[in-house]
Amino acid sequence: MSILNETHDPALRSWLASAHAGGTDFPIQNLPFAVFRRRGSTEPARGGVAIGDQIIDLAELHQAKPFSGRAAEALAAGSQSTLNALMALTPAHWSALRLALSRALREGAPEQAVLQICLVPQAQVEYLLPARIGDYTDFYTSIHHATNVGRLFRPDNPLMPNYKWVPIGYHGRASSVVVSGQNFARPCGQLKAPESSAPVLGASQRLDIELELGVFLGQANALGEAVPITEAEDHVFGLCLLNDWSARDIQAWEYQPLGPFLAKNFATSISPWVVSMEALAPFRTAPERPAGDPAPLPYLDSEHNRSAGALDVQMQVTLQTPAMRAQDPASGAVICTTSYRHAYWTLAQMVAHHSVNGCNLQPGDLLGTGTLSGPTLEQAGALLELTAGGKNPIKLPNGEQRAFLEDGDTVVFRAWCDKPGQARIGFGECRGQVLPARSL
After folding, report:
1. Of 144, 145, 235, 354, which residue is the catalytic one?
2. CA nearest neighbour of 131 among 77, 92, 184, 171
3. Is the pLDDT score of 288 beyond 80?
4. Is 144 among the residues known to form the active site?
5. What's phi and psi for 424, nearest 5 deg?
6. pTM higher than 0.70 for the full model?
């Protein structure tokens, strides 16, 4: 479990000026990981660490061999074309590399000359998926989202009876997870209008977003061995942003009785940067569980989880229509702001439950938190909630309206942690644009 140490000191200053520019996502207290290469090049992909507006090229830094011990082992693993080898190491390795990089990036560090030649401007790169994702599981951890959606279909009984007892999830499609900036065509599938006697094949007309965090898993557990909740966070490498694009009309027809299928497996976007659990340690908080709700079963309960199992990650959704983009390429309307602290089930509970039956989680596996809605309508993380199922379209500042996404719409997720006495820790962005459906 991550604890505060010298890397969290808000007074730390880097010799790289952009690392302490106002509003930066990537100060010296963050140091998230990604996989990149220079844009338009054929050079190999490799791991990198963000600092200010630059990336530390871990492959080039590895050649200089500036570190020793666990930090050197983690650097070698992080220099590869995916972060799976780094994720497979222990939290002690991740922490050692983070500490070594932090010290080398500080003002006056003797390693400055070595690190400077390993910097690549973020403006010059393209990102790849951070890891080879073997499996993807999406959870349903926001009770506010579950209640809002349930109320649309079951006004008198919105929550299913199992919700407060078990972290609900389903297995998604790993092959269609894409990195931020990769656009996708509007999905097609079977659609059935309420008044029709039979479905038709067509393009989804109720395309939606889902504001989520992605959870990259680290070290594996053996098949048949459950991960105790007290050790669950040792199996979490870090967090990213995740947009689980959803075709609500396809979903409505297909989801009974086995749940989502074509409505969700056409694209899932994630941000390129993976923020470590250690970087997020200052922003821990107690989970929200109302008095009177059933206590979690023992395998889902621990003293640490009760006191500090949640994270106060601020999250924001911006929508840009083609008309907005034509007027100003940098424009957009904020349609949701919420926080991960409102989730009902925590990261540790997700991992503990996923493995309690003996499921063997692997380095690079991806979990989704499910849509992270807050207690008010303005904090709803999906258009399905924001528009009451499309009945009340949202009004945008330029006079346009949206019930669901239209062709050409771009959605951008951003997230950050910030509070007095701590450095601001950002996640970058998760961006995607809806293209017209391909002809059938």
Report:
1. 145
2. 77
3. yes
4. no
5. -75, 130
6. yes
